[in-house]
Amino acid sequence: MFFGSPRPHSQENTWRRQLDQFAKVNQQELAALSWGLWLENGDSQGTLGINLKPQPHFVYCPKSAIETLNDNVENQIQEILGIVDNHQPEKEVLIIGIGSEQLKLIHYEPEPAPPICYAQLATDVNTLLERLEQDLSKQIS
């Protein structure tokens, strides 16, 4: 490959770009969902995640599972554990994207803050989940 020539987009990176685009387009809805789930469960279920297999859907990633994975990959995802430990749900959104043997973090501070996004959308968590999962399925191949 010559300097400056474009690199081919591999399948493994396609889902990352699609997930980034999904998060960008749905910032407010993801913030609302994140806060609504936090109100229902706190951190008792773990960190919100998006599992892309067999089709994109939301899941919880228990901290113990993230710790076990970190041990299994010789502490290569230690930074993710630090972000999970310091997550401030009233100010920021944290979602772990789970692809084929890879992880991707969605981590941002929305404007307005998650509690305000949730109040402004004025819908329940299940409706938000269904709507976002439908959008995920359309956007991520």
TrEMBL record:
| All copies of domain Chaperone protein CcmS, residue ranges | 3-140
What InterPro entries is this protein classified in? CcmS
Instruction: Report the domain of life of the source organism.
Output: Bacteria
Q: What is this protein called?
A: Chaperone protein CcmS domain-containing protein
Organism encoding this protein: Chroogloeocystis siderophila 5.2 s.c.1
